[in-house]
Amino acid sequence: MRVVGLMSGTSLDGVDAAVVEFEGADERELRWGVRAFVTVPYTAERRERIHEAIVAGGAAALCRLHADLGEWFAEAALAACEAAALAPEEVDLIGSHGQTVWHEPPEAGRRGATLQLGCAATIAERTGIPVVSDFRVRDVAAGGEGAPLVPWVDRLLFSLPDRRRVLQNIGGMANLTWLPPRGDPSPLLAFDTGPGNALIDAAVTLATGGRETYDRDGEWARRGQVRPDLLAELLSHPFFHRAPPKSTGREVFGRPFVEALVERIAPTTDRDWADLVATLTALTARSIADAIRRYALPRGVDEVVVTGGGARNPALLAMLEGELSPIPVLHGDVLGLDPDAKEAVAFAALAWAHVRGIPANIPEATGAAGPRVLGCFTPGGRSRAPAFIGISG
Amino acid sequence: MRVVGLMSGTSLDGVDAAVVEFEGADERELRWGVRAFVTVPYTAERRERIHEAIVAGGAAALCRLHADLGEWFAEAALAACEAAALAPEEVDLIGSHGQTVWHEPPEAGRRGATLQLGCAATIAERTGIPVVSDFRVRDVAAGGEGAPLVPWVDRLLFSLPDRRRVLQNIGGMANLTWLPPRGDPSPLLAFDTGPGNALIDAAVTLATGGRETYDRDGEWARRGQVRPDLLAELLSHPFFHRAPPKSTGREVFGRPFVEALVERIAPTTDRDWADLVATLTALTARSIADAIRRYALPRGVDEVVVTGGGARNPALLAMLEGELSPIPVLHGDVLGLDPDAKEAVAFAALAWAHVRGIPANIPEATGAAGPRVLGCFTPGGRSRAPAFIGISG
Predict the structure, then answer these.
(1) Do A59 and B59 touch (CB under 8 A)?
(2) DSSP H helical ranges for A249-384
(3) Is the pTM of this model over 0.90?
(4) A with B: how many residue pairs have Cβ under 8 Å apart?
(5) Which of A4, A63, A329, A359 is close enough to A371 for a disulfide, judged by CB 3.0 to 4.6 Å?
(6) Judgement on whether residues A40 and A141 belong to the same structural domain of the protein
(7) Chain B contacts in chain A segment 108-147 (CB below 8 A)
């Protein structure tokens, strides 16, 4: 079975699309390989439209975004097929996470709520391929956090016979999965550790008036010095002190968080801004390391594997190594796939699970009432798009 | 196969839920019957929340509404099961239209977009029954108006061997289906004629400061006099002069439309308000009659059957009879089911079509590029909701 996995994360970088081949009928005898991976970056205009719709849009803007994201996801799926030298007819299924526009974990007395946009019907219409989408919401409906969703995939694809691994993903937010050795029935541990690149990206964007949108090669962080007072204060955020399961998002650690901070400490010189980026990088590294020490280390950790955009930030990685020494901190390359592809591959695997009727949430990680088959299925059926159809934005 | 159909229309009256039994494997040999029908009215608070989220809500409010509507739809589905003396385990499927929060038909150079909320995963979680939802969006993705969706159902359930029928539904908006005699391969005609009860409801609500929300028994309209100048002006709205296929919604004919009108004509006395309601009732009747005369009559019309909330407004029905005489205008009772149940029954039939892989849009009515299987499928799987789960609102 050939499956395209689609992911558009909270970083709003673009759409990741992986073509994954699965062989074998069940989880134990599964063999898999990534046949192609592409990232279709958002143009600045598209990124701004998504951001605007999320922070300021109403029903009309979100409705239009839903349709347009469907078009953009379809483009990315077709680009991945092309990179794999496959016609869309040769692909069996698409798994699409969608773009999270709002996510509220459950709180005392109130169930969670989550909204992913990116019209599955549009993806099916443009590609002709059936689509499984909206994975997160079933776990939320069952009382869970709706996150993290990848631990089931992590165990399926990345557990090792002889090692206890922490897989640390650093996207817009950061999340970890602790994996027992393969075959060990211990429950998984998986939760969001807090911000990933989101705060760093926001600070660099504000520092440069939008000319730069992330800390390339960690250079801003390297030029600055961590402000221990500010770091200590930021680490007092209640999220870091909650026990897992827990999840978070840009509504907590996003641009408004950094804007409020900037208003208060009023950086003026380049050096002030570099100090801010260094401090936010340290916040990300320290909150990840604290989470690993508190919750994973008691179960044993033989290695930490870092994936996601954060794996390309040497300043962040160096801080994380310093924090966790002597535990080896490995680059996601060791997983045998492009680390950027990991989340897209995960949604291909989750779509594979859906059509096989395999529950893929991990209740001990999300807090859901029980295992559930995630996602909803939209039939394929090729058709030529009417000639007049344009894509706004 | 037992299917619950769920509908929550633009009137925001409540959730209609019908339990429908289907026998037979395909369209030609289908037999069907309605086993139960209930309407679970929205409380004033819920209605206002939906309205507020639609007109003024952002991502957070719409995300929460999505989850809560899912809970409310599940309540209605369970109420319908109870009314049918069935345990949820004895029901095979739910078809849910969802609550439309925004709908933009295609315009030159730009595809349409539509957003229905009402979390299918929540309905599946609370009932344990599989759910087919999001019917409208696939037709829109295929270049169609996404409306009307019921003509396929109308032909399936209500065409007669020897008569050409217009089925005129008057909900928040009004839409018609012209049906050739059963077995006649003529294409259907189906489109939105314009406002249904939405403008009348808004005027009564404004006139009474919210104490009344609709024109009970048409009494406001009967007390007032139609203002011919105002009626002529309102009939000049471009929507009425577009040829089908066409669809509309509250973003065109909704509360803001009436608010703007009220600001301009400034009704002060009870009589002024009654005249306004009478004029808006005439607008609804005339726009329906004009549409029938222009587009259906050339194909032959033996009878007009009125369904939806508008069938309970005698002032509106009398005006419509006057306009269409001598064509018989029949109450929806002749269809052999509670006319209020018709739309809920339609979504049960559309869910039935989905699981059989039958395309159910009518391209000649919607303008879509071709026939499509509508909807997406969310697996069931019963579970007890965690005890802490409350429903906000």
Answers:
(1) no
(2) 255-265, 270-291, 314-324, 342-355, 363-366
(3) no
(4) 180
(5) A359
(6) yes
(7) 108-115, 119-122, 124-126, 133-134, 137-138, 140-143
